[in-house]
Amino acid sequence: MKQSVNAINNKIYQIPSELDDTKNLEDFLERNSGKKVIVVQGLGFVGAVMALVCANSFSEDYAVIGIDLPNENTYWKIKSINEGIFPLVADDPKIDQFFQKSIEKGNLYATYDPNAYKYADIVIVDINLDVQKESNKERVLESFDVDLTGFKAAMASIGSKCKENVLILVETTVPPGTSQLVVKPIIEEHLLKRNLRTDKYRLGHSYERVMPGPEYIDSIREFPRVYSGIDDRSADDIEIFLNTIIDSKKCELTRLQNTNATEIAKVLENSYRAMNISFAIEWSRFAEEAGVDLYSIVDAIRIRKTHANLMYPGVGVGGYCLTKDPLLASWARQSFFGSNSDLKMSINSVSNNDQMPIFAYNRLLEVFGPLENKKLVFLGVSYRGDVGDTRYTPVETLLLKVKESKAQVYLHDPFISFWQELEYKVNSNIDDVLDKDPDIIIISAGHSVYKENSTLDKIMKLNPTKIFDTIGLFSNKQIKQLEKKHTISVLGRGDIK
Amino acid sequence: MKQSVNAINNKIYQIPSELDDTKNLEDFLERNSGKKVIVVQGLGFVGAVMALVCANSFSEDYAVIGIDLPNENTYWKIKSINEGIFPLVADDPKIDQFFQKSIEKGNLYATYDPNAYKYADIVIVDINLDVQKESNKERVLESFDVDLTGFKAAMASIGSKCKENVLILVETTVPPGTSQLVVKPIIEEHLLKRNLRTDKYRLGHSYERVMPGPEYIDSIREFPRVYSGIDDRSADDIEIFLNTIIDSKKCELTRLQNTNATEIAKVLENSYRAMNISFAIEWSRFAEEAGVDLYSIVDAIRIRKTHANLMYPGVGVGGYCLTKDPLLASWARQSFFGSNSDLKMSINSVSNNDQMPIFAYNRLLEVFGPLENKKLVFLGVSYRGDVGDTRYTPVETLLLKVKESKAQVYLHDPFISFWQELEYKVNSNIDDVLDKDPDIIIISAGHSVYKENSTLDKIMKLNPTKIFDTIGLFSNKQIKQLEKKHTISVLGRGDIK
User: What is the ipTM of this complex?
Assistant: First the structure.
């Protein structure tokens, strides 16, 4: 029997071979009778929080069922929700508030049982859709592909159970064209198989702009939304639904012409950001060569509103979206729309961004010499400041290169105690790692706590050491102070010539 | 004897072989005795207007001498200024006001005589610095180079005449490193040759952000500025000077650490913009293939502040800056700083942008078929809306392709009567060109007048025709109206599938 371990409290669950949860589902629905039923498909970083938002909607009291597959990585989330422990650690106090409210109301339940779709008035699709990337060891992207097998199975799972008049809202970031060319035919095929009508269901796409962190909940409830339907009736119903969970007084709802348009909007949005980050890389290297500080240059340019989105240099891009969404777009252009062209700038941006930690590593060697037997402390392993999320973190690439050089490595992150992808323990007590008398301190994530003077004071108490700031964490004033005792090198900031 | 023709009033000047303007210079300086003397080197789109701004400074009454070379393209500008006709047509009423004031005050003079540098307290360098681009016939950039010969000669011309304590402000967009590595040694070499001290002159760099158009003057006087000096004293003096001509209450002055930094800032700023435009190209093609309207997608995304700089699709990039500045940067990285790497994203952006009109041409054939013997009207030949400037306009490439197809072409532009680069006449009366009963109307520049309903009414009166909007000029409402009679295709807006 397979196991699944709760990442929050390490509790071990046996995954049952019998997958019937009918009794519990029926009990839950009886307790919530009269309410519209929402099934949220996928309990990851988006789906789990989307379920909370739906369970705490503005204007309708929904019964919300979260559903995920009963495998090792996800089964524990289902159990955890039903045991009153939310399966995500986040800085946003609203997460806990909303979860507690849903427990009080008893309108949130999690299951692995696809029979849940039978009861759904609304299904929200929040499952992952991955890109398979092939890169060389310098992290240059050599090829990529998109395997829709899992996604199609998930749609079939809805189609084979759902009501004739269900509303399906796809939130997953998909290759543009997917709602029209993949979801629609699968749902209709299964409706027909069950001798049901295909003109009563509704299908639309609206992408989330979730930002894990201190405003996790508000990044769903109070953030502008783009939406569409496969037809006008679908778009109308999507709009009505979104208005029940989103504060549309505070944030605009924009309807686009069809699902292709919103699906393109999502990947375009993220490609834009990936490209801007990639752009900063080239100029970082140039700034280092020319002996100038790219941060102050970016500040000077950002004064212009037309240039306000210019990015600072950094150690790389992580997270689930920017590392793959531009590729989804290019793949769809060719696979769904038969184009002979790809989206070259977008593909190159992903590849450039993937290589950023390699540049950082090379720069580290260049300024501070060989690492063999040196003690290195990493401050921050998360891909983003003030978030505990190691998915595709650029720190991983940098860390693995450093380990190859036979350096001794100590990791700190206030938000992460266990790095799942690498199965490393991470220290959350900064004194522990600084006590190692490090040869080099690598600033590798922009957590606010690192910027505080208390952290600076701790570093100032160390023996003279080397500091490699890969993200421009410190202010100029802090750098000056650090330089009184230590040697500091900042990525994207050349030594003035 | 060579001639130079005044582009404003067609007056023909003979260029003298004797280049002594001493008498006039001395007279001018006598009339302006006691005033600090500014020599503005270069009377192009920046220098001519910079001279006006200096002659109408906020807090110091300068005597301003504009200087340019006595060749066919520039000699007329010198004469024109001294005859009371400003050598630029612009939509900004302040241009004329400022010019008239300087005539009243008698503090502006133009010359070709390098002896002017003898008298300068301040020299402002506003000459051109070109990139030599080699492209194939599909406008793919194949190679490029930067020839500094002319620029170096101009610096030598200053150095061989200037006062020991002159302040030199370089405003030209240069390959980063130029002030330090080119200007400084040339000036010092010439000072030493004349047995003068090399520790009294000041040298700095501050780039303009001039935007020809209705706010031409304010884009200098009321726009934030970035500046630097080769040393602190130079930076201090540049700051003092800038404060006399710029409204620093309204707009920030930012000092950067050295001239490399400001020179990089300038080309980075323009590379950023070129890249964002280039990015829109790829997605335009994709949008057309996927049958969606990229304009409305961009609008939906721009709601996010982090994405506000996302560009609309269009027919291409023109003007003097975005078409070459990214290449200056990459050239400098290798030539001045010995890098093995170029700035690939920036180079590719220039190449992509150069190819945009070719894409537009191909799209035109795709949607409206062969052009042979068809009558085509171009509305707008300028590279930018509401400006009369044909330098590197993308319309040129599109027009030449159309002409190759043996179409009959009629050009209209309210701001241009003669297209210097191609030596074409341009009609400034829209009725004349619409009366030709065109088969296709190409909207090729975003002049405000084209958006007005009066223009729409004129188009609606024509026989059913085809409209190819390459810049997204018309609103959705206008498009709906046009479609009642005509067939319209908009670049970046696919037919909905």
Answer: 0.94
